[in-house]
Design goal:
By secondary structure, the chain is an all-alpha fold. The chain has one domain: Amino acid/polyamine transporter I. The chain is built from 16 helices and no strands. The longest helix has 38 residues. The protein starts with a helix and ends with a helix.
Amino acid sequence: MGLVRHITRSRLVIAIFLSTGVYTSCALSTRSLSVSSSSLRSASTLQPSSLPVYPACSVAPLYASVASSGKDVPREKADALTTNVASVGTGTASSTQLIFTLVKAIVGAGVLTLPAGIASFGNAPSAAIPALGLITVIGILSGYGFALIGRVCHLTGTSSYREAWKASVGEPSSWIPAWSVTLKTIFAVLAYSMILGETFQSLFLTAGLAWSKTAVLTTITSVVLLPLCLLKNLSSLAPFSLLGSLGMLYTAVAMGIRYFGKAYVGSGKFAQDLPFNLQPAFGTIGASGVFNTQTSILVGMLSTAYMAHFNAPRIYAELENNTVPRYLKVVASSFAISIGLFATMASLGFLTFGAHSSGLILNNYSVRDTLMGISRLAVALSIVFSYPLAFVGARDGVLDLLQVQNRTPTVLNGLTVGLLAAVTAAALSIPDVSFVLAFAGSTLGNALIYIFPALMWRGAVRKQPNSTTGQRREVKLAMMSAFAGLGMGIMGATKAVQSIL
């Protein structure tokens, strides 16, 4: 009875948090980014439809977003942090448009792995409480890194990630973020393949086809993905990016219906459909489990989930009247909304299945569950149409870094087939997509979110002849964030590897 009361009380706390606390924390995170500007006394044209929204487990920024060096916007001499500076550039997008764009870039299939991240350190419902705290804190830190990149663009008068790095850190080391982007995008494509294999296998089962994962992924790759990746013009796929956002919103609602409707508990409608390892399972390790080093697995997943940082220069350049305070409001609002969605979906998934939360939470739901079947279909279609965009970014990144100048159709097609085959083979060999996201997030993700923005900010401030005391002090704050990211990355990567050994 004590355990029952404990579970009931924990679920009540989570329900109250989901209805009020998440949005309170989102409001606080919005204010924290905005106020940080005011407390320090702060102050290439793209149409909204053409602004790149990198699909992904929020993990697949196209290499072009970094490698491209658009025309530098005029540099405003006034200090971005001490005055309400005039706008820089000729952007035409409103704050609302860019908030929608950025949320769409952040919230991807990566959120579907977060329940497993919670299960990595706890198996009682109360484990969701510190997990919500981590989701919020990591979201705020990720938003801060995103904000730093745009402010670096303002100080250096640049409008692309690579140009901002060159102007702040230096030309000789510009290969570091370039390689990081390419590798991160390859990890994104790998995660896509793994999710597609598992999702289509469930969809085939719903249709009465008991295919193995190998047969499913090989067929989907050969018949669907390869022809799409060989397309010479991918512009026709861009409108389908909206499908991913709608699919995530639908999935969140469907997960809520199944949790509150108790369809997977005891004598619930679908409770007996699942094998033992996917049935709801709860133990006694609750909130205290957060002090276990296994928590770093969730942190690594979050570093992947919040990844959208190579959009920062273009978000800043596209914003109409793009003063630093207006840019910060866009960033704060976008990350606040994303924090709310991540917290909601991660909690609902974990509170439904507990310790048996799958690396892809959709796997936990019955193939007879029509409500979740629609979700699987929406996620699968979204990834299918997003896949070529991320894949071509990875392929072109490899070509750029290898300095291949003669990009004939034969070269492009050959690399496409070879790279896609390698990714598919890896997807069939690695057992759990949550490992890919945790490892990639702990290594490349932490570098891109915490370390690189801090180094860029430090370099930009040092090169400013009129840098303020507030800016120089913030360098210390940014570097603290970088060292924290380094520590979390080492621990997370270690635990991720140990989890599959």
